């Protein structure tokens, strides 16, 4: 190996002063001391969620994940709001039900307990109930043909949920 620093070390060293500003900025100081306002933390978490979505798009997706994300995005762009809700609802609802089911039968000292607790937890289930209610409200007065499209979207997304879980078990990657 050459005597020059690795890129990562050079990059860190060149930006160490910015890191120090980040480390000591009021947000992080108040986060550490537990005095950060709830409004600031909620704003941060919301923006972080948006960032992680974008970050995730920059990483290679498995075929099943690519298909599912593409389906949801196409539905969001091309279909009415009610159909989009039908397509989004299975992700919420299935995770909640799987979380509760796994929680009920999980072994003690499960290494995935935090994940299980998240999806079995009341906070997530409250969010799921809100999405169910919003979907039911949006569907209340739609035409039979639009309701059929909502059902078709729900079914397709449910199938894609299966494919997503199955692909994770198979450690699916692109074959070529």
Molecular structure report:
With 176 residues, the chain is mostly helical. The protein folds into two domains: 7-57, no CATH class; 63-169, Up-down Bundle (Heme Oxygenase, Chain A). The chain has nine helices and no strands. It has helices at residues 7-14, 16-24, 26-33, 38-57, 63-78, 81-105, 113-120, 122-139, 144-169. The model has no long low-confidence stretch (mean pLDDT 90).
Write the layout of secondary structure elements.
Blueprint: H1 7-14, H2 16-24, H3 26-33, H4 38-57, H5 63-78, H6 81-105, H7 113-120, H8 122-139, H9 144-169
What percent of residues adopt helix (DSSP H or I)? over 70%
Uncertain residue ranges: none
And the CATH topology of the largest domain?
Heme Oxygenase, Chain A
Annotation, overall tally of beta strands: 0
Order of helices and strands: HHHHHHHHH
What is the typical, i.e. mean, pLDDT? 90
Question: Can you give me a brief rundown of this structure?
Answer:
With 176 residues, the protein is an all-alpha fold. The protein contains nine helices and no strands. The protein starts with 6 loop residues before the first helix and ends in a 7-residue tail after the last helix.
Features:
176 residues, mainly alpha, Heme Oxygenase, Chain A, 2 domains
């Amino acid at each position: 190996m050459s005597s020059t620093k690795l890129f990562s070390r050079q990059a860190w060293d060149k930006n160490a002063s910015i890191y120090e500003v980040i480390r000591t900025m009021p947000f992080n100081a108040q986060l550490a001391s537990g005095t950060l306002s709830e409004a600031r933390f909620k704003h941060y978490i919301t923006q972080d969620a948006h960032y992680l979505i974008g970050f995730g798009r920059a990483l290679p997706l498995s075929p099943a994940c690519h298909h599912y994300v593409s389906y949801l995005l196409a539905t969001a762009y091309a279909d009415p709001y009610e159909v989009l809700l039908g397509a989004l609802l299975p992700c919420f609802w299935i995770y909640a039900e799987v979380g509760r089911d796994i929680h009920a039968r999980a072994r003690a000292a499960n290494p995935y307990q935090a994940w299980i607790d998240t999806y079995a937890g009341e906070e997530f289930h409250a969010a799921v109930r809100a999405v169910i209610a919003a979907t039911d409200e949006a569907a209340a007065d739609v035409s039979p043909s639009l309701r059929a499209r909502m059902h078709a979207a729900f079914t397709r997304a449910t199938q894609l949920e299966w494919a997503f879980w199955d692909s994770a078990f198979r450690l699916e990657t692109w074959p070529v």
